[in-house]
Amino acid sequence: MFKRPPMEEPIARGNPPVVDRPSSEVLISLTGTPSAKPARRVERSASAIEAPPRRDTRPTRRRTPRDRDRDRSERESRQRPQHSRDDARDQRPRRRRERTEAPVYEPRPTPAPAPAIPTDLPEQASFGELTVSGAMGHALDRMGYSEPTPVQSQVVPLATQGLDVVGQAQTGTGKTAAFGIPIVELIDGESTQIQALVLTPTRELAMQVSDEVSTLGQFQGVRCLTVYGGQSMNVQLDGLRRRPQVVVATPGRLMDHMSRRTISLSDVRIVVLDEADQMLDIGFVDDIERILRATPSTRQTLLFSATMPGPIRRLARRYLRDPEWIRVGGDAEPVEQVDQLYYEVAAQDRQRALDGLLADHDHVTQALIFRRTKIGVDRLVYHLEREGFDAEAIHGDMTQAHRERVMRRFREKGLRVLVATNVAARGLDIPAVSHVINYDMPSNLEEYVHRIGRTARMGRPGTAITFVSDVLDFSTLDVIQEHVGGDLRQERLAFLYG
Known about the structure:
With 498 residues, the protein is of the alpha/beta class. The protein has helices spanning 46-50, 65-79, 85-91, 134-143, 150-160, 175-186, 203-216, 233-241, 251-260, 276-282, 285-293, 310-319, 350-358, 374-386, 400-411, 445-452, 471-484, 494-497, and strands at residues 25-28, 40-43, 124-127, 130-133, 165-169, 196-199, 224-227, 246-249, 270-273, 300-305, 324-328, 338-344, 367-370, 391-394, 417-420, 435-438, 462-468, 488-490. The chain has two domains: 124-328, Rossmann fold, CATH 3.40.50.300; 338-497, Rossmann fold. Helix 5 packs parallel to helix 6 (175-186) and helix 6 crosses helix 7 (203-216).
């Protein structure tokens, strides 16, 4: 017979049952009679059963005006409509993604081959009063050189005979071709050894010299390599595998290659020290002496410098064999084609004065502006860009790739204004520069001469402008005027001071 199930005991208030199930689940039977419906399960939190919530008795912080402003901004942000990027992305029509084929990787393009050497060239050609090979004469014609400069007329015959030469000449007189022509004429184009070494103080000058030597020897099979810091070592190692006959280098990176034994100077026949005074100013004298000692004692040495201080003379007497001394122009003398001006401008008015000068696009076609410090260069470029001028900066803190890009734009006339420190004041040949502007007064006479030598290159006209803004500038101005005489004249900025 049917047996009645036992009744569940009532649950005492405050005493939860002890069961082998979660404490938050308490089963309560709706009726004591058997039923087909399952028991209802009631969910209770453990905290509600154990103890009531504790009141927060901490004192409330007094509201400040900042809190009220924050609440006001939150209310306003909730009232204005929200447009997120996701909403805009959802509203755009969805396009079906098409399957694309795997990319086809093409091999790296090979460099353009060297120009073919004409077979109908004469054995000799005339370069003004000089006699050069037919291939050299053809290269000079293509470069637009018809007459040698004074320094070229004196240096080329002596260097071609194998004599050591010390050349002192004004900047911008063609010293690169003065030693580039003898190098190309004397080396063996079929040899795979380094036969000529050219040392320069800066990377930009090294690249410029390398380009000119390569152009001079383009019809004689001359291979030239540029070695300088800031460029990948692997790139230079790849260049060394092509067996160059001429290496144009800065002393620091050349010393790195010598310590790695990736460059050997045992077969060098000609060594050229270009801008020797600046290399000594930078502190390369120890490196230069170590490099010269690594070359054969029978080498031919050519030294070129704009000035001849005592250390340069001692270096020449120690490492050159009975050199021929060539001097074209006076000591630290600017070229005659430079029109030299200076303006007395207050320091706070220099930016306005520069803006007024650059506004004349017909007169100032391309300008090179010098400042003393790197931060001064960056600030001036920022101002010029805000005023709408096409300007860029170049100084030592920039990467080599950036410096090369800027200099390429400036040489190709794609950039109108270049602001630089003295890193560009030596040796660079930028023919299109119509104006050099000394925004900051040069520190000495030699610096002034090298700065303004960036214009009026190779007989072209040019203008050099100097701002005199400080009391200390007048003492330097007196030294410059005493040296150049009446060539440096004062003018007044009518648009600024009436």
